[in-house]
Amino acid sequence: MIIWTLAALAGAAMPQAAPAANEAAIRFGAREAVQQISLSPDGSHIAYIQPTTARGAALYVVDLATGTPKPILTSSGDPDRLSYCRWSTNTRLVCGIYMILPSEVGALGFTRVIGIDSDSKNLKIVSARDSQNALGFTTGGGSIIDWLSDSDDGTVLMTRTYIPEVSTGTHLGSVQEGFGVDRVDTGSLKRRTVESPKLDAAEYISDGHGTVRIMGIRPKAGDGYDKGRVNYFYRKPDSRDWAPLGSITDSPGTGDGFDPYAVDRDRNLAYGFDDKDGHTALYSIALDGSLKRDLVLARPDADIDSLVQIGRQRRVVGASYATERRQVEFFDPELRKLSAALSKALPGLPLVSFVDASTDENRLILFAGSDVDPGHYYLFDKKARKLDELLPTRPQLAKTVLAPVKPVSFPAADGTQIPGYLTLPPGSDGKNLPAIVMPHGGPGDRDEWGFDWLAQYFANRGYAVLQPNFRGSTGYGSAWFQQNGFKSWKIAVGDVNDGGRWLVKQGIADPARLGIVGWSYGGYAALQSAVLDPTLFKAIVAVAPVTDLETLRSESENFTNYRRVDAFIGRGPHVREGSPAQNVGRIVAPVLMFHGDRDQNVGIRESRMMASRLKDAGKQAELVEFHNLDHYLDDSTIRTGMLDKMDAFLRASMKF
């Protein structure tokens, strides 16, 4: 059973690109045709979000008995965006809306939660409304932390930021302030407080059955900034008293305490992550008062970085980590067996993951993909032992030959072997090619084996693409993370440059046609690569790059996380030495940058500064600005034009 028609789905998702765009840019620039998908509690319907206009989206509901999609909600993407939709009952959905608006302190992100019936009626705002007497406003509309799988009345547990109200001349003003939890009926909007707001509360974790068991407190200093730690507390069953659970430093790569992620009600324990011999491991801690701690899963060569959860109660069934490929260890024997069977049924799609499930877990939505297949969503019926395809993620690429992705390693200057992924043009002999080194963002991130639309686009256009997991990447342990990619920028960017030299030494890259392309931290690394070696790369492309570490620090001054950002960047000579905008004299290659003017991750003034200083120094530089777009440039038309311009720039700069 395939519930889509290729022509309709492709037409909805394809960008209206300028005539000058090459055909590959149009196909690869299109956003994913399925941005999110969920299954109704009884397993009879699915809902999925699909792109419409360049940056808009629509919510479709499908009765699986008929297979006919019905649109029930749309968003323009400017500024409102649909971020997710899930079922609160068999006939009602709850959706997250996200938007970025300009403000005096820069671009501000706002979220709200809405509810809508599956027949498109009764659209309501589920997020608590700010009072007209409130002494401020909330940017966050709350997150659903429990879908209350034991109930079918559409109530959920939802976080809420409480704002105190003006009380002058009235006795009705509320003095409640802080972060709490409400139980909300998503249909009638009736709500009651289940966790009173606490001023420094930052996180709540439920047991999946309606009881909040863990609370995270992020203390603030006298200046209002976070202190950089989170203190966790827990409750015993049938108790309202909080007891200490532990404390962590709120910074990536530290691994200095138990970081809880989920609660298993039936086993009365919490799952979370902590360090074991320099790598992140999964532990469980008993919530019976003993705090008995058990190691659940660890590896000497990789960080255990995510839980595998399933169903409306988010039952923990396994954990995941990445070596050369993403791997899953299932704790649930039935799902372990099912996963093995599905892998055999889908032999060319080894990346299999469970996306959603009916309440009884008889029907499952799963995703399966590979490096040369962007992936498909399937419906599996356990009782019928039947697997049906639902939707492809990128139907525009159905007839496009994609390039295999090969795990590789190369030596850094100090002899350390740096892992990465090499993608060669389809049908190429892999020799003397135009080539690109493409460092990932983050820096607290890593590349993985699988489909990557940017890497595949460039391979389609004839480039070899190397994606290095330089030191400073996550997933390889605390020693590999170093002090992060900013404090240890010379090591991180040095590894990136050594990747380019390796391509040349192996005969893969023509040294005269070697470029570098990066997004976010990857854009920073692309620009900073020339500070270490001005002549290695013949062209530099940077999307939403960090260009000045002091400016990056200042962008957080009006936010409570300033101390965390300040500590992450650090103080000392590396701040100036590690800032491309402070070292434009070293840059020889032509530079092309792209940036959205509502980027919350990296302000657009960093790219404007870089472009201005390069031009003042007589360098070749161009900055393309995108209106009303954030860090991710989630617009098919914009992405298509950007890909086309990148390719033309690289060809002109590297003369091929």
Detailed description of the structure:
It contains twelve helices and 35 strands. The chain has 656 residues and is α+β, with helices and mostly antiparallel strands. Strand 34, helix 11 (605-616) and strand 35 (621-626) form a beta-alpha-beta unit. The model is unreliable at 4-19 (pLDDT under 50).
Short description, anyone?
This protein is an alpha+beta fold and 656 residues long. A hairpin with an 8-residue loop joins strand 15 and strand 16. Helix content is 18%, strand content 36%.
Summarize the helices and strands and which ones pair or pack.
Layout: H1 6-13, H2 23-29, E1 36-39, E2 45-51, E3 57-63, E4 68-75, E5 81-87, E6 92-101, E7 108-117, E8 124-125, E9 144-146, E10 155-162, E11 178-185, E12 191-198, E13 201-206, E14 212-217, E15 229-234, E16 243-249, E17 259-264, E18 269-276, E19 279-286, E20 293-297, E21 304-310, E22 315-322, E23 326-330, H3 333-345, E24 351-357, E25 363-369, E26 376-381, E27 386-392, E28 405-411, E29 417-423, E30 433-437, H4 453-460, E31 464-468, H5 478-481, H6 489-505, E32 509-519, H7 521-532, E33 539-543, H8 549-554, H9 562-569, H10 573-577, E34 591-596, H11 605-616, E35 621-626, H12 636-653
Parallel strand pairs: 30-31, 30-32, 32-33, 33-34, 34-35
Antiparallel strand pairs: 1-2, 2-3, 3-4, 5-6, 6-7, 7-8, 9-10, 10-11, 11-12, 13-14, 14-15, 15-16, 17-18, 18-19, 19-20, 21-22, 22-23, 24-25, 25-26, 26-27, 28-29, 29-31
Helix pairs in contact: 2-4, 2-12, 6-7
